[in-house]
């Protein structure tokens, strides 16, 4: 009966089209890797398993469907297709064997949103105390969205926002409220 | 009569008429009107009643300093009290009602207070607290409560929505008059990120009204080109209708944008609160004109001179055919000239100074306006509107020289810079003798983190009042906030001769006049009140404010403060700067609660944490209980049963069949590393390092004082990995506690932690049929032999990736199964389907509580309250005697915690089978030093046990375990008492036979 079970994201890919498009996406594979970043084997292990190097402080590296984000001095966030998580954990564990590391699946502990459109910045400017116009290319920003913890980064098409799964509904409520037509921060 | 003029009005659009009501009376105004302008255009000079004496009050000002024009705006779910008519933009269909009147504005009964004014002196409230004591409760309090308050509090849920937004800039300019525009232009040209805020819907402030010319063109034209230049700059953001409300540390500013106040119901947010972080703040907030203190200065029709000018020039509103101007400066002559140019009569200009020979007085004389110096108003005559003024010598005591009939009085006592934003964060003021005002002391500004000036005052707000100085000063401020920018534009306006401070009119006014000379219109404070306060010993301006109510309430004394403290200084025979000002606190003008709450209301008032099965519970009769920010089902109701019945049904079904509990909220923290075992041995009172892989152990965590903090089952996952379960409310706290010790104390220990609470849905399958249910799901061997009590196993259960823990919090055969959260709902439904034939039912947190209480298991937060140690709870077995140390060990050895005479956990069984009220106290013989009954214990958990058919309880009792069989007395609230016998706290299955099958 295993083939019948389909993992579902926190909100079943809910969406809202306001003055920006809000989409809850996923499920997405996410792995927390706790490791001191001066561990010699780390960059090689990441390159071998993820095809990406060690990101600089407060940066996220992306190649195709895989990303590595810097979450703290001893914590990385690995993003990859959901189905590849188990194999990736095994591969990283093997590649870092003998090192003091923690590789843990957090795919289901998170909710992920896309905020897209020309006015995507205006949605997040209502929720996150972040100077979004000064966000550097490839910057991963840990912040809050109103009352909950969140992380965000930007690409050409918009923003990705990650929060905790239990508050996915709250996050969707915030994003919906903030993207309602008529509430544009800089109306034409 | 005030009325609309046939021509003019720079801000109104006569092609767009708006209909509105005031006190249910239909009136007409134009697009661009403020509500004040529209009311005056309809001859509505009377707009409210004063707070204490219910005296008739009319519009005094034209801006946010207005003390009288406060209305209940809108109706029902859009009712807003205390809305200022001077800052409310007129829209079609607006409804307003005056405040503080009964039964009507025109005929108000409260006005008798006016005739009893001598019995309502300064400090009236405080004096009512004195003897006889009964008088406060029965006489004064009802009177004060009835008469206190201005607007009506809304009763309906607010129909509008609100939001907040964050902004960042190098230079924030607050105030969109010519000073703010020039400062923003300078800063904008330097390339700095600039944000410019203007509280009204118009740029340019009062320069266009005052006939200022800039670089040879009228101010209006300069404003237009400057705004266009600013709009063309990508680095400049302009926001109108956005009031800089408060300045806080590190360049943090709150600003309230009135997005849709003037377009209610158009779907936009009503207000938006901007939370701005600015490198430098320029306060270009202008100045406020001061009233003059003469008898009858509060009668409708007496207005500030500049406000009269605003109404004539901006809105083409005449305050009346004949306006007497009274002043101590040249600026007010502009009003006389504006009135004259509009074809209205100015019977006389009364100038308190001995001479008036400046350019403006000369111009007035040339126009044929009568100018009298050393003159004052002895008294304004009239009731609900001005009828005439009695004139006297300013130097004298009020002997009437002449009476002149008029409809309005335009007064000017000079100008006070708006120093609020400068002062909010500690900017200091200096007293300027020449202009008789406090202005920012540039040498003592509010400071940034690096010691530089956080706020730069610009233009009139900096005391640079004449237009030429204003613009030059603003240019300088813009440069100071960015970089040098060359020549400032030149503003030209008529030269003004020095003003002369006048704090009372006439200077020798006797008490009869002083008692009618108002300082604070909104709070009914007169010159005589402040003088009385001074006589009664109120020397500090802050104390005088509270005692007299000078400068309180919605306008915070924007008109009255300087006049009031000048009167106080005079009464104390001090200099004004020695007396000083009251403290300026944010917000500059009131900010509605909606804006402060922002998006946080309704569904998103607070983050609501939902488990993966939340929606299923909701659809199946869950009665919710908040647990931290989680919602957990308290019970699931079926049919019309009560919650109590639901709980009993759920308990019995667990005991007899099988129940399902959503345990997803339980904290789950992974601890891994070579030092993880040692770390957990320090954190828990027991030994976790020796736990074999595949097994579980119950553990207690204490804080360093020894008090019990959290509990839960720990599972050994592999050689250097453990999984720690915490209480539902404790997950984040315990994870932070772990990181605190790892990062701050044991930083050299090799341990990683990860809070994976939300990664898993967790389902407790509990009851004699639990194993049958799991076997039906299939895929894992969950037999007693393969998976005995206190062990765990990984596997595929019914096709789900599962980790099955054989643990029990109910005393029944019990499994807790963790599955990835994304499959949690599917697993829950699979369990219900598989368990249908075995009588499965979900159960909630209350059944969980009853089940654990029947077994005598403690609950963190019930049996513990931060003062309880594990030894108090009979949990000594979970404390390792062999370990050298653990967090809390030292604390538990201290004499008070090691005392054998502590209150300790026991079971309590009522003699009559009833349920003891939760939290009930067991009394002991005698009384304590406070005359209260001595106590010897308290109930920590109390339930009706459906299993046993009687009340059961646990409690902490003095030497409880040594007193088995004794009967204690628990008085009940409301009389009577319950008797209960001390028993073992395990009421059900003492041998543990049921869980061990």
UniProtKB/TrEMBL annotation, chain A:
Name of one Pfam family that matches: SoxG
Classification via InterPro entries: SoxG, TrmE/GcvT-like
Coiled-coil region: none
Protein name in UniProt: Sarcosine oxidase subunit gamma
Automatic annotation (TrEMBL), chain B:
GO molecular function annotations of the record: sarcosine oxidase activity
GO biological process: tetrahydrofolate metabolic process
Pfam families reported in the protein's UniProt record: Fer2_4, GCV_T, GCV_T_C, Pyr_redox_2, SO_alpha_A3
Cofactors named for this entry: FAD
Cytoplasm found in the keyword field: no
InterPro entries, per database record: 2Fe-2S-bd_N, FAD/NAD-bd_sf, FAD/NAD-binding_dom, Flavin_amine_oxidase, GcvT/YgfZ/DmdA, GcvT/YgfZ_C, GcvT_C, GCVT_N
Keyword Acyltransferase: no
Occurrences of domain Aminomethyltransferase C-terminal (ranges): 904-989
Keywords: Oxidoreductase
Domain named SoxA A3: residues: 516-598
Signal sequence range: none
Domain FAD/NAD(P)-binding per the UniProt entry, residue ranges: 170-419
Domain GCVT N-terminal: 613-883
NCBIfam families the record matches: soxA
Family: Belongs to the GcvT family.
Protein name in the entry: Sarcosine oxidase subunit alpha family protein
């Amino acid at each position: 009966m295993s083939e019948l079970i389909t993992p579902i994201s926190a909100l079943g890919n809910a969406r809202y089209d306001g003055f920006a498009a809000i989409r809850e996406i996923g499920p997405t594979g996410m792995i927390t890797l706790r490791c001191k970043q001066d561990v010699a084997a780390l960059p090689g292990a990441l390159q071998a398993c993820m095809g990406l190097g060690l990101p600089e402080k407060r940066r996220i590296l992306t190649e195709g469907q895989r990303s590595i984000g810097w979450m703290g001095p001893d914590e990385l966030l690995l993003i990859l297709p959901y189905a590849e998580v188990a194999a990736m954990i095994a591969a990283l564990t093997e590649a870092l064997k003998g090192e003091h590391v923690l590789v843990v699946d957090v795919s289901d502990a998170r909710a992920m949103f896309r905020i897209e459109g020309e006015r995507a910045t205006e949605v997040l400017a209502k929720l996150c105390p972040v100077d979004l116009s000064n966000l550097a290319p490839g910057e991963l920003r840990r912040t809050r969205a109103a009352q909950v913890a969140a992380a965000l980064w930007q690409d050409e098409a918009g923003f990705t926002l990650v929060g905790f799964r239990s508050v996915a509904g709250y996050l969707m409520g915030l994003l919906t409220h903030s993207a309602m037509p008529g509430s544009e921060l800089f109306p034409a | 009569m005030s009325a609309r003029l046939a021509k003019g009005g720079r801000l109104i659009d006569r092609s767009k008429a708006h209909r509105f009501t005031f006190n249910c009376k239909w009136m007409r105004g134009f697009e661009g009107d403020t509500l004040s302008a529209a009311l005056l255009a309809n001859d509505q000079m009377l707009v409210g009643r004063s707070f204490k004496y219910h005296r008739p009050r009319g519009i005094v000002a034209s801006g946010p300093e207005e003390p009288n024009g406060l209305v209940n705006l809108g109706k029902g779910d859009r009712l807003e009290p205390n809305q200022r008519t001077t800052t409310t933009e007129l829209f079609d269909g607006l409804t307003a009602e005056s405040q503080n009147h009964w039964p009507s504005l025109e005929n108000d009964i409260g006005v008798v207070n006016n005739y009893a004014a001598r019995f309502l002196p300064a400090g009236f409230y405080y004096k009512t607290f004195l003897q006889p004591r009964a008088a406060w409760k029965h006489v004064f309090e009802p009177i004060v409560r009835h008469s206190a308050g201005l607007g009506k509090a809304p009763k309906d849920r607010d129909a509008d929505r609100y939001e907040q937004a964050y902004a960042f800039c190098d230079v924030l300019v607050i105030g969109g008059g010519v000073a703010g525009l020039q400062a923003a232009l300078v800063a904008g040209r330097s390339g700095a990120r600039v944000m410019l805020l203007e509280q009204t819907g118009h740029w340019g402030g009062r320069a266009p009204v005052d006939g200022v010319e800039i670089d040879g063109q009228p101010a209006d034209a300069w404003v237009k080109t400057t705004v266009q230049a600013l709009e063309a700059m990508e680095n400049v953001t302009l926001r109108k209708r956005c009031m800089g409300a408060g300045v806080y540390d590190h360049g943090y500013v709150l600003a309230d944008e009135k997005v849709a106040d003037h377009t209610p119901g158009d779907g936009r947010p009503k207000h938006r609160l901007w939370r701005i972080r600015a490198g430098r703040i320029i306060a270009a907030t202008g100045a406020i004109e001061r009233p003059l203190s003469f008898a009858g200065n509060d009668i409708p029709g007496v207005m500030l001179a500049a406000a009269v000018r605003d109404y004539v020039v901006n809105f083409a509103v005449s305050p009346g055919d004949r306006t007497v101007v009274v002043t101590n400066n040249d600026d007010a002559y502009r009003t006389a000239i504006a009135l004259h140019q509009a074809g209205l009569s100015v019977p006389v200009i009364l100038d308190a100074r001995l001479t008036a020979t400046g350019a403006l007085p000369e111009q007035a004389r040339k126009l044929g306006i009568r100018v009298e110096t050393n003159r004052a108003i002895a008294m304004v005559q009239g009731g609900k509107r001005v009828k005439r003024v009695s004139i006297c010598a300013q130097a004298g005591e009020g002997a009437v020289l002449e009476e002149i009939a008029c409809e309005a009085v335009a007064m000017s006592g000079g100008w006070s810079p708006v120093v609020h934003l400068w002062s909010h964060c500690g900017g200091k003021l200096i007293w300027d003798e020449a202009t008789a005002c406090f202005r920012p002391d540039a040498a003592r500004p509010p400071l940034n983190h690096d010691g530089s000036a956080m706020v730069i005052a610009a233009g009139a707000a900096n005391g640079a009042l004449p237009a030429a100085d204003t613009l030059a000063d603003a240019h300088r401020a813009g440069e100071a906030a960015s970089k040098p920018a060359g020549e400032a534009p030149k503003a030209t306006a008529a030269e003004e001769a020095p003003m002369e401070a006048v704090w009372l009119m006439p200077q020798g006014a006797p008490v009869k006049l002083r008692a009618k000379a108002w300082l604070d219109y909104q709070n009914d404070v007169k010159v005589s009140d402040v003088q009385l306060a001074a006589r009664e010993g109120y020397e500090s301006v802050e104390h005088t404010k509270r005692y007299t109510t000078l400068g309180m309430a919605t306008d915070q004394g924007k008109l009255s403060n300087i006049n009031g403290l000048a009167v106080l200084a005079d009464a104390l025979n001090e200099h004004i700067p020695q007396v000083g000002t009251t403290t300026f606190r944010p917000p500059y003008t009131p900010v509605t609660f909606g804006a402060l709450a922002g998006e946080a209301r309704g569904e998103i008032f607070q983050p609501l944490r939902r488990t993966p099965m939340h929606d299923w519970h909701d659809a199946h009769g869950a009665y919710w209980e908040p647990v931290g920010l989680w919602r957990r089902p308290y019970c699931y109701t079926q049919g019309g049963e009560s919650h109590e019945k639901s709980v009993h049904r759920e308990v019995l079904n667990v005991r007899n069949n099988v129940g399902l509990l959503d345990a997803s909220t339980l904290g789950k923290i992974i601890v891994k590393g070579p030092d993880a075992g040692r770390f957990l041995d320090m954190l828990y009172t027991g030994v976790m390092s020796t736990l074999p892989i595949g097994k579980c152990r119950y553990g207690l965590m204490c804080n360093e004082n020894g008090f019990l903090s959290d509990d839960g089952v720990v599972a050994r996952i592999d050689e250097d990995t453990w999984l720690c379960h915490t209480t539902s409310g404790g997950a984040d706290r315990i994870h932070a506690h772990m990181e605190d010790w790892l990062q701050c104390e044991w930083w050299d220990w090799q341990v990683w932690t990860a809070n994976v609470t939300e990664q898993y849905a967790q389902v407790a399958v509990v009851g004699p049929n639990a194993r049958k249910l799991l076997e039906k799901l299939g895929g894992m061997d969950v037999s007693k032999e393969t998976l005995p009590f206190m062990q765990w196993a990984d596997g595929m259960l019914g096709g789900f990736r599962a980790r099955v823990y054989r643990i029990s919090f109910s005393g029944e055969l019990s499994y807790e199964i963790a599955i990835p959260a994304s499959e949690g709902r599917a697993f829950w439904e699979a369990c219900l389907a598989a368990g249908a034939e075995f009588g499965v039912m979900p159960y909630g947190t209350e059944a969980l509580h009853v089940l654990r209480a029947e077994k005598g298991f403690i609950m963190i937060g019930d049996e513990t309250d931060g003062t309880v140690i594990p030894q108090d709870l009979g949990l000594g077995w979970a404390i390792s005697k062999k370990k050298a140390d653990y967090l809390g060990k030292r604390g538990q050895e201290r004499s008070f915690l090691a005392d054998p005479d502590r209150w300790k956990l026991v079971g309590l069984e009522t003699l009559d089978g009833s349920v003891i009220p939760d939290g009930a106290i067991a009394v002991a013989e005698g009384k304590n030093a406070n005359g209260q009954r001595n106590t010897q214990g308290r109930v920590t958990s109390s339930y009706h046990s459906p299993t046993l058919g009687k009340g059961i309880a646990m409690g902490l009792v003095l030497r409880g375990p040594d007193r088995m069989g004794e009967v204690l007395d628990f008085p009940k609230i409301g009389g009577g008492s319950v008797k209960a016998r001390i028993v073992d706290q395990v009421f059900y299955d003492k041998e543990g036979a049921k869980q061990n099958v």
